[in-house]
Structures are given as C-alpha cells and as structure tokens.
C-alpha cells in the first residue's frame, strides 16, 4: 500500500518552495536595479511568454525525472510537431493519389499532438520494456525526430500557415497567436497544464505510484504498482507537453522550422533541477518547477537588459544551476542530520543496556562447580 507524503516530506517541500521564492525575489530586485525597463508591461509579457514555453516542457520533464529518468528528445519533438503542423496547413501531398490534402485546424492540432505522444510512447517502450537506459533511448530519439523534421522540410521552413477559406483550414494563427485577456495563449496553456498535472501528482493513484517508483522501484513493484505502465505513461506525457510547445511556437512565430526547440531540453532540465527535484527520482513538485522556470526567465532577461554578453549569460546560467543544486543538497544533508540527532541518537543512547561484568563462575566454565573440597 502506497502512503501519502509524510509530515517531514511536506515540511521539506515547503522549505524548498520558500527558498526558491527567495531566489526569485533576489533576481527581481537585481533586475529592477538595472533599469525601469524590466517592469514595463510589454517586457513582462515577453518574459512570461518565454517562461511559459520552458515551464510546459519542464512539467513534462518533471514527470520523467520523478521516476529517475531523463528525456533528451523533447527539443526535437518540439521541432517535429511544429513541422507536422506546418506541412499539414500548407497541404499534405498524398503520393499514391497525387493529390494534396488540406485538413481542418482541429485535425492538424490532433495529429501534431499525436506525433509527440508517439515519440514519447517509443521512448517509454525502449525504457520500460526493452530496459534501455533513459539517457541512451532519448538521445537516440533526439536525432531520429530531428532527422525526420529535416526530411519533411528539406531544411526549409513552412511559412504559409494562414490557410484559405475555400479549403476550410483557416484559424490556426488566430488561435495560437491570440492573447486572451491580454496574456499570450502559451501562458494559458501553461496554467492549464500546471493545474492538471498538480492534481494528477497529488490526488490520483498514478501520482502516488510515480513518487513510489522514483523512490524505490523494487519496493513499489512488490507493493503492486504497475511500474512498466507508469514508466511508459510518463514519457508519453513528456512527449505530449513537447508537442504542445511545438504548436505554440509555430503559431507564435507564424512559421514552422525544423530547427525549432534546439537545446530546449537543457532549459527544461535546468528548471526542474532549480525547482528542487532530485535527479535520482522521488522528489519534486509542480510549484517548484514553475518557480525554477521563472528563475531562468528572469535571470536571462535581466542579463540582457544589463547588456551582458551572450557568452557570459551561458556561464552565469550554469553557475546558478550548480549553486541551486549545491544549496539544495546542503539543505537535505542538514535536515537528515537533524532528524537523526532528534530521533535516532537519543533513543539509541537511552535504550542501550548497561554492560555487566561476567561472573566468576561463567569465566571458570562448567567445571568450576564440580571442584572437590577436602
């Protein structure tokens, strides 16, 4: 039977969230000190738009990392799903019939999301069924997905995405380039995904199974958890999140390019790690992942406003990731020592029986009582 998180785990997650909020506030203060442009409405909207893309990918990446895995193919999946959407909107040529098909927008969205699900399913089968290491399986799929995107486009982007009324395929840019209530569509998708995945992790058996398999896969399997199904589903969810990002980027840029999503997997992993998740699995929250994504977004935007070179931006971003992980590990070590000192040490000291010297008869052996006296 899988139990809910203990009081110590809930307290630990609250401390991690508080630490991340402090880091976020420090970044905001530093950015504000660099100039008033940071708090401009347009600049904040641009930051939130960039952060939402990272956050959606990071939510899917969190599901994989909670299981102790990794998904390096999400960036290529972003490019592939966007290319599929662009090719369908421009017209998909059917070689056998020598005709072009122009599907409706909802069909384009479903098929593009289905491509991400398919990539995730292949990753899940490789990891769960064939026991391929997650790093190797997803690294290979990174090249496969990117190669398929290049083959479809022949290296050139699709830019005719508006469709035609006569063909009934208009509305893609109207949907994905819109800004309901002044916020980009990507922000609303991020909020929707965050709510859904937070409920899944905290309120459903699947969420408890995921934490259990990440903490101890063998014990979870002995407890009746369908470990292989869980591993397959998390990669499917990661692929779904990547495909959603591909659609959002295609709509935002008004073009579909096979190079879209390059190195996005690194930003997603960084957001999850900064958010307090353990790469070994079993620890991490949606709230922390979102804060980690915002930390990266605010950091990059603040460095750009200051005028820091792009090369130094990479160095500073890497240093922030290392410092965040080091502080988290240091915090975990302190908490473990306090728990041992508060619970383990006093009980062991009090419960240890006092040693008594052996009796003379026991030292002399069984023949001591049989001595002959005169």
Radius of gyration: 27 Å
Strand order of the largest sheet: 1-2
H/E topology pattern:
HHHEEHHHHHHHHHHH
Kindly state the percentage of residues in helix.
over 70%
Helical region count?
A: 14
Number of strands: 2
In the predicted model, the low-confidence regions spanning at least 5 consecutive residues are 1-5, 346-374
Q: What assembly state would you assign to the polypeptide chains in this entry? A: single chain
Architecture per CATH nomenclature, i.e. the level-2 architecture: Orthogonal Bundle
Main sheet overview: 2 strands, antiparallel
What is the CATH C level class, in words? Mainly Alpha
Provide structural commentary:
There is one protein chain. The protein is an all-alpha fold and 374 residues long. The chain has helices at 7-34, 41-66, 74-90, 105-129, 134-153, 172-176, 185-203, 205-215, 217-222, 227-253, 264-274, 286-306, 310-351, 360-364, and strands spanning 92-94, 99-101. The protein has a single domain, classed as ABC transporter involved in vitamin B12 uptake, BtuC, CATH 1.10.3470. The protein is built from 14 helices and two strands, in the order αααββααααααααααα. Strand 1 and strand 2 (99-101) form a beta hairpin. The termini are far apart.
């Amino acid at each position: 039977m899988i139990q809910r998180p203990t009081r110590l785990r809930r307290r630990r997650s609250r401390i991690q969230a508080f630490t991340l909020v402090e880091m976020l506030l420090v970044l905001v203060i530093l950015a504000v000190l660099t100039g008033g442009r940071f708090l401009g409405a347009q600049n904040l909207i641009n930051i939130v738009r960039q952060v939402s893309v990272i956050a959606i990918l990071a939510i899917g990446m969190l599901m994989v990392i909670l299981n102790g895995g990794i998904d390096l193919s999400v960036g290529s999946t972003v490019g592939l799903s966007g290319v599929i959407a662009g090719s369908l909107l421009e017209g998909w040529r059917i070689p056998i019939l020598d005709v072009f098909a122009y599907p409706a927008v909802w069909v384009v969205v479903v098929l593009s999301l289905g491509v991400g699900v398919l990539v995730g399913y292949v990753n899940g089968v490789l990891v769960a069924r064939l026991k391929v290491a997650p790093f190797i399986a997803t690294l290979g799929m990174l090249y496969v997905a990117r190669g398929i995107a290049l083959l479809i486009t022949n290296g050139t982007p699709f830019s005719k995405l508006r469709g035609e009324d006569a063909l009934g395929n208009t509305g893609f840019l109207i949907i994905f380039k819109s800004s309901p209530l002044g916020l980009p569509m990507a922000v609303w998708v991020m909020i929707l995904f965050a709510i859904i995945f937070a409920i899944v992790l905290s309120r459903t058996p699947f969420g408890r199974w995921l934490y259990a398999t990440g903490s101890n896969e063998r014990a979870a399997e002995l407890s009746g958890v369908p470990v292989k199904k869980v591993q397959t589903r998390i990669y499917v969810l990661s692929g779904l999140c990547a495909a959603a990002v591909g659609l959002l980027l295609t709509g935002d840029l008004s073009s579909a390019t096979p190079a879209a999503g390059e190195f996005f997997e690194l930003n997603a992993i960084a957001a999850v790690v900064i958010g307090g998740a353990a790469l070994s699995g079993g620890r991490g929250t949606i709230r922390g992942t979102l804060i980690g994504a915002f930390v990266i977004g605010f950091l990059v935007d603040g460095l750009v406003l200051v005028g820091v070179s792009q090369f130094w931006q990479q160095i500073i971003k890497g240093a922030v990731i290392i410092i965040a992980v080091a502080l988290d590990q240091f915090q975990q070590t302190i908490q473990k020592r306090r728990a041992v000192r508060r619970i383990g040490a006093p009980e062991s000291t009090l419960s240890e029986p006092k040693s008594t010297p052996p009796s003379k008869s026991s030292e002399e052996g069984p023949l001591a009582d049989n001595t002959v006296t005169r």
